[in-house]
Amino acid sequence: MRDITTLNRLLTVRQNFVANVSHELRTPLAVIQGYMETITSEEEDSEMRLALTSRLVNPLSRMQSLVNDLLLLTRLESTESEDHASQVELASVVRNAVAGLGDLNDARQRVQISSEGDVHITGSVSELHSLCVNLISNALRYSSEGQPVEVSVQRTEDSVRLAVRDYGVGIAPEHLERLTERFYRVDMADSRTLGGTGLGLAIVKHVLRRHNSALQIESELGQGSVFSCEFAPSEASTSESAASAAAPSEKL
Ligand code: ADP
């Protein structure tokens, strides 16, 4: 006798995943195909062809984001990180992530970063960069233009805490538990219009797992959300913890 319950469950998870990926790719592919048929039709003049060609950018970049996120997720699930032992100053990872978002959703204007104490941790810069990009871009996308997004990196007595707060749509309690599942979205149409792949929080969960941490979510519908996590301080900074924890707040 063999227990095949786990095996069956894994097979179902895999089947669902493949079905989801196929579905996510099929929609932009259908859009591209539709435009291509008109672009290559002999009836259209060159001005119209040019206009239609520019409309290919959106579905193409959606497919590109999806493939990039899938590759990253696969890597996070299946490999050891090469640069996992780096000393990382978390506040500078946050700053780089915001700079990388550029003018997307007015990131530079809306994100306020504050850092307090020695915020060095041991980990992978590239993975922590992905973590910050996903949390911050979600906060920007699920709140309105002009609303601030507050990112704080704080040294507490025995940890370094990263928190991303927004004042946007918020999340009803019944969704919280499933948010980090691949392709789980509260509102499919919203996520798609806002350019989401549905994989951001799954990536966040794996990055945190690889850093011995976990995602905490506090949210109130219509009021906004706080996504936070805690890391062990790097050994180099532990010895200086008392002094660092007492350091004055620095507005970046
Ligand atoms: P997506 O690409 O759809 O944003 P994520 O995995 O990043 O995928 O997030 C999953 C879902 O969690 C989103 O579709 C959205 O419903 C919800 N969500 C994530 N971040 C926020 C946030 N800051 N405020 C409200 N809802 C959020």
Secondary structure tally, helices: 11
- Major β-sheet annotation: 6 strands, mixed
Instruction: Give the cofactors and ligands.
Output: adenosine-5'-diphosphate
Order of helices and strands: HHHEHHEEHEEHHHEEHHE
Termini separation comes to: 61 Å
Helical proportion, percent range: 40-55%
Structure description:
It is globular, with a radius of gyration of 21 Å. It is of the alpha+beta class. The protein has eleven helices and eight strands. The site of adenosine-5'-diphosphate has 22 residues, from α6 and α9.
Summarize the structure.
The chain has 252 residues and is α+β, with helices and mostly antiparallel strands. It is 51% helix and 17% strand.
Break the fold down into its secondary structure elements and pairings.
Blueprint: H1 5-39, H2 46-54, H3 57-78, E1 86-89, H4 90-101, H5 107-110, E2 111-116, E3 120-123, H6 125-141, E4 149-155, E5 160-166, H7 173-176, H8 188-193, H9 200-210, E6 216-220, E7 224-231, H10 235-238, H11 241-245, E8 250-251
Parallel strand pairs: 2-4
Antiparallel strand pairs: 1-3, 2-8, 4-5, 5-7, 6-7
Bound molecules: adenosine-5'-diphosphate.
The site of adenosine-5'-diphosphate has 22 residues, from helix 6 and helix 9.
